[in-house]
Amino acid sequence: MRGGREPRRADSILANLIRNALKYLGDAATCRVVVRVLDDRDAVRIEVEDTGPGIAPAVEQLVFEPHVRAQGARVPGLGLGLATVKRLTEAHGGRVGLRTVVGEGSVFWFELPKASAEAARAADVGSSASA
After folding, report:
1. How many other C-beta atoms are found inside a 10 Å radius of the C-beta of residue 55?
2. Pairwise CA distance, residues 108 & 82, whole Å
3. What's the rounded Cα separation, in Å, for the pair 59 and 118?
4. 130 HSE (CA, 13 A, CB side)
């Protein structure tokens, strides 16, 4: 929607995932973070891939919960970034997930449904009428 808060929320979701990837990346010279945007028919999927340490299977299903941290106290933080990603994404009808391999890295992703053409037109008309 034009002029709405949705683009800012998508920016916030993406920024949290990128910050998280950089925070846990480590010091190796070959470390990298890659961001991909995948356009599906009904949704847009954004992936943030890193070459960090990966996440242990015991923690993998919990990382989107508040105050859960994959690497313990070695990296500063409160464990709220991924919980925020999940909360904002789900509030907009989307979903989150991750693929991870210990020692190889992780891919965190979120999907947001595309607005229908009718909903987009209605939003444009509503914002024009209130201007």
Report:
1. 22
2. 9
3. 41
4. 8
Alpha carbon distance 127, 86 (integer Å): 28
User: 7-46 burial string, b = 16+ CB within 10 Å, else e?
Assistant: eeebeebbebbeebbeebbeeeeeeebeeeeeeeeeeebb
To which residue do tokens 């808060």 refer? 5
As to burial, measured by CB atoms within 10 angstroms (0-12 exposed, 13-18 middle, 19+ buried), residue 92 is middle
Q: Which residue has the tokens 């947001």?
A: 112
Long-range contacts of 70-76 (CB under 8 A, 24+ apart): 70/24, 71/24, 75/23, 75/24
Sign for the pseudo-dihedral over CA of 112, 63, 15, 109: negative
Q: How far is CA 49 from CA 6, 15, 53, 97, 100, in A?
A: 23, 13, 12, 12, 9
- 35-50, pLDDT tens digit by residue? 999 998 899 999 999 9
Please state the pTM of the whole predicted model.
0.77
> Which stretches of the chain drop beneath a pLDDT of 50?
1-3, 73, 117
